[in-house]
Design brief:
- The chain has 2 domains: 59 residues, Double Stranded RNA Binding Domain (2-Layer Sandwich); 84 residues, Orthogonal Bundle (Arc Repressor Mutant, subunit A), CATH 1.10.10.
- 31% of the residues lie in helices and 17% in strands.
- The chain contains 5 helices and 6 strands; from the N terminus they run ββββααβααβα.
- The protein has a 4-stranded mixed β-sheet with strand order 3-2-1-4, covered by helices on one side. It has a two-stranded parallel sheet with strand order 5-6.
- Strand 1 and strand 2 form a beta hairpin.
- The longest helix is centred in the first third of the chain and has 14 residues.
- The protein starts with a strand and ends in an 11-residue tail after the last helix.
Length: 164
């Protein structure tokens, strides 16, 4: 596995890749950062990271990135089904844990919340677009301040959310 550190307007992120796929993207201090990360090799010139840096640059410039990367997040089959569903939430929109649970027709909103929280590829798998049933911001492993900032960046009208 290879890693790279990428500076964003919301702080430093660590990216991980295996082969030609992105396997991780975490904010500094994010919950559930994998313990084995210390064994990885820094390789900032890896092609995956070159494309990722452009994606992140576009995203934080307020543009919906027009391209995607090959993603291969490690996780259980259930987690992967949740993360796949998150990829269907449009830029600038939100869903709830309960709606995601209904869309995958498995488990409870709480189980979905756990899977969302363990998403290893922040930003690209948009777990920040999932909010509580009452419209409140809940559970973002990178911190609620970052979740709020990402939703605002995407142009989501945060006044609709009870947290704001």
């Amino acid at each position: 596995m290879y890693t790279d550190r990428i500076t964003t307007p919301l702080g430093e992120m660590t990216a991980a890749s295996e082969g030609e796929a992105l396997t991780g993207l975490w904010f500094a201090g994010q919950k559930y950062f994998p313990a084995e990360a210390g064994e990885w090799t820094d390789k900032p010139d890896h092609p995956v990271f070159t494309v990722l840096r452009q994606w992140i640059s576009d995203y934080f410039a307020g543009k919906k990135p027009a391209f995607t990367l090959n993603l291969n997040p490690p996780g259980t089959d259930f987690q992967k089904s949740v993360w796949k569903q998150l990829l269907t939430i449009p830029y600038g929109q939100v869903s709830t844990y309960g709606k995601v649970a209904k869309q995958i027709t498995r488990q409870s909103a709480r189980a979905v919340g756990s899977a969302v929280g363990h998403n290893p590829i922040s930003l690209l798998i948009p777990c920040h677009r999932v909010i509580g049933a009452d419209g409140s911001l809940t559970g973002y492993a990178g911190g609620l301040d970052k979740k709020e900032a990402l939703l605002r960046l995407e142009g989501y009208n945060c006044l609709r959310i009870g947290h704001f």
